[in-house]
């Protein structure tokens, strides 16, 4: 390693009962491109939020350029020379490239912003034909926008630049352009923390790497000395022997047949069959199009092409109300925005897709009884049916969202990241519930970014890669490494 | 938060403006006891509340759904002119009344359809129809007041009603009865629950198969109906159709809903709170006039109270988290 620039030692962070970081070490040298890899949920994002001052660590210490570093807010990190470039870019689209580059650091004379040599210097490093200083950022493509963000870090004389999945929305040509800029930064002794799922990229651009797993550092080393396959194995590690309660169930006749289904952008030509009493898992990276597949099936997003057969009804896409009538129900990955009306009551949320009413009038007593019945069945910890659902813990909120599908008597449950953001105990309860639903003859289509969970819960698993859905296989025919490999590289 | 506390919270939502109202009434009772505390004055205040209160009932639905309706003042003017013109043409009062309500409903439907079909934000759509309705009212009325015999429509807003045992103007009782019905509809029907769900989280409502567009259109039609009815009663009060009446009234209506616990970001609000808010503002206006407080002080007071009501609400909400 070159001279040490940034060190993070024994960083710990927990959110309520969930341990996100259980003692992470990270050392980055000056002018080094350091890849940070790990599965979804391994703790990469949390670690970077600690680095950028968005989260305060519970324990551990950091040094930057030889001095103690403890940012209390993101602006402290920025001043100290740590710049974050996130997937969702933070630019003002109506301002020009030059204005965005110096935003918050304008130099002015008598209040008038003056021409700025820093803009020219940054643009010289970025060296991109689209980047004219007077051009509004709105007119730029995603690649050029990302370069503007990096240019902003240059203007701020950042010592460390964190790139979070920088190529996920870039074309091949734009990725090459980004590589060139990263090399230019390295030549100027700027250190890069490079977060990516695409290990070929890591192999191509990074000097060293660190692997996180379950909130711990499990490996670190020189990229040149390591094979991709070895890094994948370090990411997966041994199974932690997590409890996946198996409820015996027997797949019956097909309930859902999807053929060559294409959405607005993703999915692209997805085909599969789901039987009654079967749990089908869909693995893949974030952004592969798994959520879009569920949304297109549910009628929330338009279907461009393809055919959907549900219990004998054939169509080329339908609205949500028809899908609900056909027995479909969806639990969204984004519980807070789309899934629960947080300031409304548990009873209202639970019965929203099938109101307990006669001639349009709510039967409050019956609704309350129904709510109590489901909360007892799913062990939802609550005080009263009329309590706002937002007052419950994440795990209990998720159970309300699932209970809604049960109350609606859904036969086909689309579950998007059903265990996201809930504690370990609730996870096991959700796993058991999914098994019980299958045992009752219901079908479950489950999207998850956590591969061990898919292998533990599902009967079959299919992998989605950049919009294309691979062939489903029984879980006995998959290994965790194979699933991750197909998610990263696509089907062989 | 437990169920009991949720009920307490809902009670507090109404108790807040009620306590404010009580304080203001005590203040004026101390300042100008003989004039403020008379039965006649109370009848006057109640009658003055009617127009804003009717508008606020419709606005509560709109704001609960996460929208806003700036056109209500112009709708009142247009409905008053339409009703007056129908009366002048010799139509019976009931037909004239229905005509005024119908024009309100039609404008509400236009608002709702533009908002849902063209996906334009309610603020802009209703800002547009606010101008259109006002212009249409002036065109219909030839830019002057429309004289007509309002018949029993004028009786609706007479402060001393006939028969005398009613004590308050018939319009006040009509408003209270409608408020009770609308409060029940909002709390107890699927339509009401859907309105709350849309205002609280539109994406969730969609996911659950709530017919979001249909509900929104109906909500704006409802607001239009109440605007229209307010226009008819305004005609009863003024006894002429006035195309320049109720200018800026939409702001009083929104203020009434907000003082009563409604939220501009949707998902919250109650009919009872909105009525209290409307009454509160009428009491304030009346008391200030009686106490000889200049009009500008009154305007400053109302402005400060709106901000204070919302600020208090935020504090209370943060404390209960």
In short:
The complex is a heterodimer of chains A (492) and B (321). Chain A has 492 residues and is an alpha/beta fold. Chain A contains 16 helices and 25 strands.
Write a concise keyword list for the protein shown above.
heterodimer, A: 492 residues, alpha/beta, seven-stranded mixed beta sheet, six-stranded mixed beta sheet, 25 strands, B: 321 residues, mainly alpha, ABC transporter involved in vitamin B12 uptake, BtuC, 1% strand
Q: How would you describe this structure to a colleague?
A:
The complex is a heterodimer of chains A (492) and B (321). Chain A is an alpha/beta fold. Chain A contains 16 helices and 25 strands. In chain A, strands 15, 18, 21, 22, 23, 24 and 25 form a 7-stranded mixed sheet that branches. In chain A, α4 (117-126) crosses α5 (142-155) and α5 runs parallel beside α6. The model of chain A has no long low-confidence stretch (mean pLDDT 91). By secondary structure, chain B is an all-alpha fold. Chain B has a single domain (34-320), classed as ABC transporter involved in vitamin B12 uptake, BtuC (Orthogonal Bundle). Chain B is 76% helix and 1% strand. In chain B, strands 1-2 form a two-stranded antiparallel ribbon. In chain B, α1 (3-31) runs parallel beside α13. Chain B is globular, with a radius of gyration of 20 Å. The N and C termini of chain B lie close together (8 Å). The mean pLDDT of chain B is 92. Chains A and B meet through α10 and β20 of A and α1, α9 and α10 of B.
How many H/I helices of chain A?
16
Strand order of the largest sheet of chain B: 1-2
Secondary-structure content class of chain A: alpha/beta
Measured between the Cα atoms of the first and last residue of chain B, the distance is: 8 Å
Specify the structural class of chain B.
mainly alpha
Q: Strand fraction band of chain B?
A: under 5%
Architecture of chain B in CATH?
Orthogonal Bundle
Query: In the residues of chain B, how many domains can be counted?
Result: 1
Mean pLDDT of chain B: 92
Give the helix proportion of chain A (percent range).
Answer: 25-40%
Mean pLDDT of chain A: 91
CATH top-level class of chain B: Mainly Alpha
* N-to-C SSE string of chain B, H for helix and E for strand: HHHHHHEHHHHHEHHH
Query: How many extended strands of chain B?
Result: 2
Largest interface: A-B, 36 and 27 residues
Low-confidence stretches of chain A: none
Span between N and C termini of chain A?
35 Å
Shape call of chain A: globular
Query: How does the major sheet of chain A shape up?
Result: 7 strands, mixed
Major β-sheet annotation of chain B: 2 strands, antiparallel
């Amino acid at each position: 390693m070159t001279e040490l620039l940034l060190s993070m030692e024994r960083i710990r962070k927990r959110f309520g009962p969930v341990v996100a970081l259980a003692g992470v070490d990270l050392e980055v040298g000056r002018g080094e491109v350091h890849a940070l890899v790990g599965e979804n949920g391994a703790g990469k994002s949390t670690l970077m939020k600690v680095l950028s001052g968005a989260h305060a660590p519970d324990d551990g210490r950091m040094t930057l350029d030889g001095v103690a570093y403890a940012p209390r807010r993101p602006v402290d990190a920025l001043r100290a020379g740590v710049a974050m470039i996130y997937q969702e870019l933070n630019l003002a689209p109506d301002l020009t490239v030059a204005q965005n580059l110096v935003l918050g650091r304008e130099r002015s004379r008598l209040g008038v912003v003056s021409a700025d040599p820093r803009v020219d210097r940054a643009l010289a490093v970025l060296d991109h034909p689209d980047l004219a200083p007077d051009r509004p950022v709105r007119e730029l493509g995603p690649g050029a926008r990302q370069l503007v963000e990096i240019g902003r870090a240059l203007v701020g004389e950042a010592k460390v630049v964190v790139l979070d999945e920088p190529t996920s929305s870039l074309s091949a040509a734009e990725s090459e352009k980004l590589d060139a800029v990263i090399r230019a930064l390295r030549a100027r002794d700027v250190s890069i923390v490079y977060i990516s799922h695409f290990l070929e990229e890591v192999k191509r651009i990074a000097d060293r790497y660190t692997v996180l797993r379950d909130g711990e550092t499990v490996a670190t080393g020189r990229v040149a000395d390591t094979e991709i396959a070895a890094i994948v194995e370090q990411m997966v590690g041994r199974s932690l022997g997590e409890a996946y309660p198996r409820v015996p169930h027997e797949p019956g006749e097909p309930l859902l047949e999807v053929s060559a289904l294409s959405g607005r952008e993703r999915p692209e030509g997805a085909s599969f069959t789901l039987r009654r009493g079967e749990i089908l898992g869909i693995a893949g990276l974030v952004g592969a199009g798994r959520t879009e597949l569920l949304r297109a099936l549910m009628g929330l997003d338009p279907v461009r092409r393809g055919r959907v057969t549900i219990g004998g009804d054939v169509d080329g896409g339908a609205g949500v109300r028809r899908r609900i009538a056909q027995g479909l129900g969806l639990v969204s990955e984004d519980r807070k925005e789309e899934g629960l009306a947080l300031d409304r009551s548990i009873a209202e949320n639970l019965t929203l897709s099938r109101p307990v009413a006669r001639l349009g009038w709510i039967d409050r007593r019956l609704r309350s009884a129904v709510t109590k019945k489901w909360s007892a069945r799913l062990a939802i910890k609550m005080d009263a049916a009329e309590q706002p659902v937002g007052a419950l813990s994440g795990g209990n909120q998720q159970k309300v969202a699932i209970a809604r599908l049960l109350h609606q008597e859904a036969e086909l449950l689309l579950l998007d990241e059903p265990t996201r953001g809930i504690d370990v105990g609730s996870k096991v309860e959700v796993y058991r519930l999914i098994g019980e639903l299958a045992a009752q003859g219901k079908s479950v289509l489950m999207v998850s970014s956590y591969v061990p969970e898919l292998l533990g819960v599902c009967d079959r698993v299919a992998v989605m890669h950049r919009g294309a859905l691979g062939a489903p296989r029984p879980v006995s025919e998959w290994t965790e490494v194979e699933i991750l490999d197909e998610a990263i590289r696509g089907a062989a | 938060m437990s169920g009991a506390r949720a009920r307490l919270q809902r009670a507090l939502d109404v108790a807040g403006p009620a306590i404010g109202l009580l304080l203001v009434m005590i203040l004026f009772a101390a300042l100008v006891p003989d004039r403020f505390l008379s039965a006649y004055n109370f009848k006057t205040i109640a009658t003055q509340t009617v127009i804003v209160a009717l508008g606020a009932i419709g606005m509560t639905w709109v704001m609960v759904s996460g929208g806003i309706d700036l056109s209500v003042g112009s709708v009142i003017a247009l409905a008053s002119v339409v009703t007056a013109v129908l009366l002048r043409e010799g139509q019976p009062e009931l037909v004239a009344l229905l005509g005024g309500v119908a024009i309100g409903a039609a404008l509400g439907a236009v608002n709702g359809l533009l908002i849902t079909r063209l996906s334009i934000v309610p603020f802009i759509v209703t800002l547009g129809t606010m101008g259109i309705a006002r212009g249409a009212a002036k065109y219909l009325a030839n830019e002057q007041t429309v004289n007509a015999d309002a018949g029993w429509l004028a009786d609706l807003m007479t402060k001393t009603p006939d028969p005398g045992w009613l004590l308050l103007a018939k319009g006040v009782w009509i408003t209270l009865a409608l408020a009770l019905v609308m409060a029940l509809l909002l709390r107890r029907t699927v339509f009401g629950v859907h309105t709350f769900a849309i205002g609280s989280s539109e994406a969730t409502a969609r996911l659950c198969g709530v017919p979001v567009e249909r509900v929104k259109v109906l909500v704006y039609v409802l607001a239009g109906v109440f605007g229209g009815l307010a226009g008819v009663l305004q005609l009863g009060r003024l006894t002429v159709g006035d195309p320049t009446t109720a200018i800026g009234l939409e702001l009083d209506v929104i203020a009434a809903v907000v003082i009563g616990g409604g939220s501009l970001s949707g998902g919250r609000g109650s009919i009872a709170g909105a009525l209290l808010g409307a009454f509160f503002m009428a009491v304030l206006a009346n008391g200030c006039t009686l106490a000889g407080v200049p009009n500008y002080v009154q305007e400053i007071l109302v402005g400060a109270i709106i901000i204070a009501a919302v600020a208090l609400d935020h504090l209370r909400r943060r404390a209960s988290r």
